[in-house]
Amino acid sequence: MTRLHGETNVAIGRNDPCLCGSGKKHKKCCGKNEAETLLVQQHNQSLQAVLQDFFETHPRPSEQKRLLDWKNKTEDYLVPLYGEDKAGGIIGDVYFFSKHVEIWNDFIDRKLQKESRPQLRLVLESWKNPVFLGGEILSIADYQAEMRDLLSGTAYELDVNESFPVEAGNIALGFYLPDPRKGSRFLMALNSVTAAVDVNPETVQKLKDMHKSSDAQTIQEFYRQNAIAIYQMFSSGLRSVQQTPAEVLAAVQELEQFLIGQDLKSDDLIEAYYHFLEGVTEVPPLSTGGAVYFGIRRGLLKLDWPLEQVAAVFETEETGIAEFAERLADFYDSALAGQEKEASYAFEVGTNPKANELQNWQLFMHLKNAAISSETALKRQMEYYHEKPYEPKSPSEKAQLLAYELFAKDAPEDYQEVQRFDPHLADGFLLAASAETDPTAQKTLLEKAAASSKAHFEQEMEIPWLYIGNRPYLRALFLLGIHYWQQANYEQAFTEFKNLLQLNPGDHQGARYLAAASLIALGRLEEAESLIAHYEDEYSDNAFYSWFKWLIQRKRNVHSKTAQDLFLKAVEQNPYVKKQIDKRPAALPYPKKGVLTPRSPEEAQLIWTFLAPSLL
């Protein structure tokens, strides 16, 4: 299954909760980008759950014999070309989405009977009879691809991300599901979609000739009748590690292991090195050192080694390293430097307000008392005020604006300026707590912040986080839990995080990770497993939960095969954590702010912060 795209436009009903964070109905308030994105993400999770439910419950016992017969007839054609796993996905998708599509359609009908949300009903209705396409990727911009079907010439749009990493010029074959929320021609790729590279023009022409000579009444009918044959035709251009020489894979792995050992990460360098080696007849023994030196010179690596040091570390001569680095630089400039980069997933962490909270607060303050007569008027107001600074009208508003500015500048020591305007502002207490070094005094300030903001907390909001006025209270509880965590009072820390998750189950702050880590530190392993199972998403958070699962099993039986297997899986999700576990450094405090990417040294440091109490 593919991961659904995360950001899109969604139509909000006039009586739906307003997305601006005010808690009012949309017709009485305004929409805003952050709430819209969060709502879409929740819808995406619901749609992903539909896909997951189908693949987990099918084939049913009554369908297994027919599917097995189909598999026996087709796997000999596909497994040698695509490998067992990919071929299995293709065979299953062709069976359920084409040969016996009535199984899928009946499943969608049952989901529709239970679904009342208009937007999700619209999407589910469009999911019947998934389309098969052989599409050429024309261009990629802003992580979206434009694709043109080879037979109909119809253009479509698709998200490009870690689960669908195509490049311009690829041919993408497989089944797609529409997403009418984003447009009439926006599609999402399913499990069977395969990117073929360097496709011979004769293969494309052969497809077109097959279609012209067929008896099929429609293009979709032709695709469905010939899906297996089409996969065979385009397999020669398949992007597959099976076609990559072993020495190339070994060289790339050597470079990655060097980066891991140095706590460095550079996807650009790995990609350039891999594609360069694909075109050489023999991998020279000095290539990894040359790649590192190229990365240093181009600023792809935060390493200030001179050529002499690189040569010494890789035990090879300087001239060869320098020459290889030059060849790699020429390749990078000519073949890769101008290409659109594939989408990279990143997530925001920290105790400070989110990066866009100030802008959202200002938009809310501009519009909270505005008289808006229509949605058109609302859009005009939002466009006008979107990036327009808000001029505070009261001392309390001045204090809140100043607090946001101090958080952004990381200047909590100036908290008295905030308290001069409003001595009871929750964020003023939080800034003061951040500047305080005495744990007892810090705890008192955090409790004052929680008490001050609790009076303004609107619990009846469907999604409490979306109401801007709720943020200070949720922020205060989060910081109070972290205070107990850093004092090694894991029992009280878990109590605070549990309370926070009950108030805001969507957990937009990351309290679930600290709650799970607290339970593990307390030895309450079954509760930790239950919490992980509740929040785990197979398409994100993999490294955090993989390392948690290993730690739980380690506490039960450090020498068990299960613990060893989970350790290897966790290392694959983020190998940088292994170095932290081997060296056992003091864990860093939970960050005030930051943006992390998966499988990075920075992510590993945060994971170690969660693991350390159970290992030190």
UniProtKB/TrEMBL annotation:
<dbReference type="Pfam" id="PF02810">
    <property type="entry name" value="SEC-C"/>
</dbReference>
<dbReference type="InterPro" id="IPR019734">
    <property type="entry name" value="TPR_rpt"/>
</dbReference>
<dbReference type="InterPro" id="IPR004027">
    <property type="entry name" value="SEC_C_motif"/>
</dbReference>
<keyword id="KW-0802">TPR repeat</keyword>
<feature type="repeat" description="TPR">
    <location>
        <begin position="474"/>
        <end position="507"/>
    </location>
</feature>
<protein>
    <submittedName>
        <fullName>Tetratricopeptide repeat protein</fullName>
    </submittedName>
</protein>
<dbReference type="Pfam" id="PF14559">
    <property type="entry name" value="TPR_19"/>
</dbReference>
<dbReference type="InterPro" id="IPR011990">
    <property type="entry name" value="TPR-like_helical_dom_sf"/>
</dbReference>
